[in-house]
């Protein structure tokens, strides 16, 4: 296997998000989020799970900070719950919510761990959705910028890296078109509005952050996925090019080039939101760094029955069992192909086509079936190997001039994996959800050794 050789100063960390770990659903004046509501609707989440308790980090974050210190993490990516800070999403501020994040960040800094703070990881205040339409309306962008200013107003003196949005594609597409994520809408107009208004919200928030803290580094985390044709047929190649626009370029092009990608944008003309003359300038002058969330590639087929786009990503070959190797290809427990070369391809493309921005890999990792053995260990060799392969290609990308500066494992902890509930475990630390006991998995111990080894060099 390729060795892991990372540039000097490269940060190694781990990531989580508020709804997936905090619990404390109604604690200290927190308002409900769309995920609190959605996860309690019958049949929405596997096994009837929800984030009411999750990893219980609202009650106790110190245990996990101690683990992070033991592993030697340079940085920790966390998200702020908007309804914890502003229960109705606008107007009234819940000081106790802000106090929580202040304590958490102070504890991280005391442990020598740099906080990377995401402002929106999908848990929109429910009131904002119900009364104001959330990001499906233009004013959602302004509410988001106001909320960002509140958080940065309190924490901006100790946080240097801010990530406005996590995976706006997922939020817009699954939440507003597929309906399998909160807020559960199935409406192509809402999908495109949520897309544009998130980008606009990102741009407005970035400007507010810079006005408050000119030295702050502002980024956005995009889920990027190389889209490859499933076969060399021309129809599949065209389908893959369109899928690339739909997932990757729909966000990269406005952020770096100031326009939406054609022909995808043209195909959607019936559903497009109003884009005002200044919007693209606000969106495209907004980034100090790009956050890349990478898990796998998509293999795309032409599919004439799919409306508008006529394409579909290939699903697992019938013979494959999740978590196993089929026809020489390894799959994670999510059924996602293990494909580290895709991360290299993406990083190199950012250099070639998007001006080589500073990049942090803000998520990368895999779910596998983990078992705590009688001797209290979790032997997750598949995850260790997944992480090692992706770190190796990250180092290789840096050697060919990609400006990649850090890497965050998804995730520090096993946590609430959205529609899948708690049964998909991504952590390098195992969580027993009944007792809240933590066990550092072998992958976590290995990651700690890697960090120690890097420090010595
Ligand atoms: O758990 C999610 C995370 O919230 C966003 N990115 C992908 C992860 C794994 O599915």
Automatic annotation (TrEMBL):
Claim: Hydrolase is one of the keywords in the record: yes
Taxonomic placement: Bacteria, Bacillati, Chloroflexota, Ardenticatenia, Candidatus Promineifilales
Residue intervals passing through the bilayer: none
One GO term of the biological process aspect: cellulose catabolic process
Keywords: Carbohydrate metabolism, Cellulose degradation, Glycosidase, Hydrolase, Polysaccharide degradation
Molecular function, one GO term: beta-glucosidase activity
Entry binding sites for substrate: 20, 121, 166, 295, 410, 417-418
Enzyme Commission number(s) from the entry: 3.2.1.21
Reaction catalyzed: Hydrolysis of terminal, non-reducing beta-D-glucosyl residues with release of beta-D-glucose
Similarity annotation: Belongs to the glycosyl hydrolase 1 family.
Protein name stated in the entry: Beta-glucosidase
Domain of life: Bacteria
InterPro entries named in the record: GH, Glyco_hydro_1, Glyco_hydro_1_AS, Glyco_hydro_1_beta-glucosidase
Catalytic residues (positions): 167 (proton donor), 363 (nucleophile)
GO cellular component: cytosol
Gene: bglA
